[in-house]
């Protein structure tokens, strides 16, 4: 084989098979983090409600299936169709399934965070509805993209419907942005003026920002690469990470409760402290604010229910915040 032919093959393989292989390496790394966080969750929070434990189990199983599809796609290109350049014009079924799994995980995780926003905002239907609408849109567009692509399994056909993938990712980014913005806004309203409790609120705001940041970065990089280098697979290197980021952000949020509980115990030393004003009392003309109380005797389940449930000013103590 001449040097020119070798360079031609290298130019064809590097941005396609090389990108998919790197995607597998990065996905496997993130999957290791998923395994660790899943173990920590069931080890520390076995007393959580059944629905939450089933939810964690579901997204974990989907994440396992996702990494299997990535492994299979690498096997299909690198082993099963070794030295067959024509295979690069086709897409294996595993890549189509991977897209469906990623959008499904996005639907579940964003729905979970939408519930948190709904609770913290005390039933704000507009904000919650906007999040759910964008979440459903990213799921429908993602499934459409995967389904149409698998009808022919040709790269040329899939290139014609790239708009669906881009729109799905855009909806996902918008949903994450609204979730983060809403959580930070309502937590900011929870400031009481007490330095130590405000410090706890600051920690929770940082957690909210961090949970959606990495997912958004991966989605933005996927869109940019799919548009700039559309004839390559470089975008899959980041797309394979999106589901991993969703799962790990959820697990990190759930596993952070123990640390937050310790921070709260240090901050308020087993005293009931008014955490903040987060809304106005209904049924009154004076518009007196509702105070939210927090005690260290509660199960500090901020991850699934970040707002305290007791809001009556006449109450001396609060009930536990259940997940």
Automatic annotation (TrEMBL):
<feature type="transmembrane region" description="Helical">
    <location>
        <begin position="167"/>
        <end position="188"/>
    </location>
</feature>
<feature type="transmembrane region" description="Helical">
    <location>
        <begin position="20"/>
        <end position="42"/>
    </location>
</feature>
<keyword id="KW-0812">Transmembrane</keyword>
<keyword id="KW-1133">Transmembrane helix</keyword>
<feature type="transmembrane region" description="Helical">
    <location>
        <begin position="200"/>
        <end position="225"/>
    </location>
</feature>
<dbReference type="InterPro" id="IPR045339">
    <property type="entry name" value="DUF6534"/>
</dbReference>
<protein>
    <recommendedName>
        <fullName>DUF6534 domain-containing protein</fullName>
    </recommendedName>
</protein>
<feature type="transmembrane region" description="Helical">
    <location>
        <begin position="99"/>
        <end position="119"/>
    </location>
</feature>
<feature type="transmembrane region" description="Helical">
    <location>
        <begin position="126"/>
        <end position="147"/>
    </location>
</feature>
<feature type="transmembrane region" description="Helical">
    <location>
        <begin position="54"/>
        <end position="79"/>
    </location>
</feature>
<feature type="domain" description="DUF6534">
    <location>
        <begin position="172"/>
        <end position="258"/>
    </location>
</feature>
<dbReference type="Pfam" id="PF20152">
    <property type="entry name" value="DUF6534"/>
</dbReference>
<keyword id="KW-0472">Membrane</keyword>
């Amino acid at each position: 084989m001449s040097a020119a032919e070798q360079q031609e093959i290298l130019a064809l393989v590097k941005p396609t098979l090389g990108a998919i292989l790197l995607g597998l390496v990065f996905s496997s790394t993130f999957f290791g983090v998923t395994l660790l966080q899943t173990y920590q969750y069931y080890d520390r929070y076995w007393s959580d409600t059944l629905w939450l434990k089933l939810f964690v189990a579901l997204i974990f199983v989907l994440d396992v299936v996702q990494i299997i599809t990535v492994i299979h796609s690498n096997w299909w290109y690198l082993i099963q169709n070794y030295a067959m350049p024509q295979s690069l014009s086709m897409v294996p079924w595993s890549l189509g399934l991977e897209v469906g799994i990623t959008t499904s995980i996005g639907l579940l995780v964003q729905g979970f965070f939408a519930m948190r926003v709904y609770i913290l905002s005390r039933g704000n239907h507009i904000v919650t509805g906007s999040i759910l609408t964008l979440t459903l849109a990213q799921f429908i567009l993602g499934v459409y993209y995967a389904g149409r692509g698998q009808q022919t399994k040709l790269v040329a056909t899939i290139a014609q419907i790239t708009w669906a993938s881009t729109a799905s990712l855009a909806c996902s980014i918008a949903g994450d942005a609204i979730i983060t913005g809403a959580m930070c806004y309502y937590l900011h309203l929870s400031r009481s003026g007490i330095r130590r409790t405000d410090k706890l609120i600051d920690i929770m705001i940082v957690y909210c920002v961090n949970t959606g940041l990495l997912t958004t970065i991966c989605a933005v990089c996927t869109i940019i690469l799919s548009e700039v280098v559309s004839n390559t697979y470089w975008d899959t290197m980041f797309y394979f990470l999106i589901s991993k980021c969703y799962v790990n952000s959820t697990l990190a949020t759930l596993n952070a409760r123990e640390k937050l509980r310790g921070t709260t115990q240090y901050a308020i030393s087993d005293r009931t402290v008014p955490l903040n004003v987060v809304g106005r009392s209904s049924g009154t003309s004076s518009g007196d604010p509702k105070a939210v109380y927090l005690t260290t005797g509660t199960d500090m389940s901020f991850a699934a229910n970040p707002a305290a449930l007791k809001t009556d000013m006449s109450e001396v103590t609060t009930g536990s915040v259940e997940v």
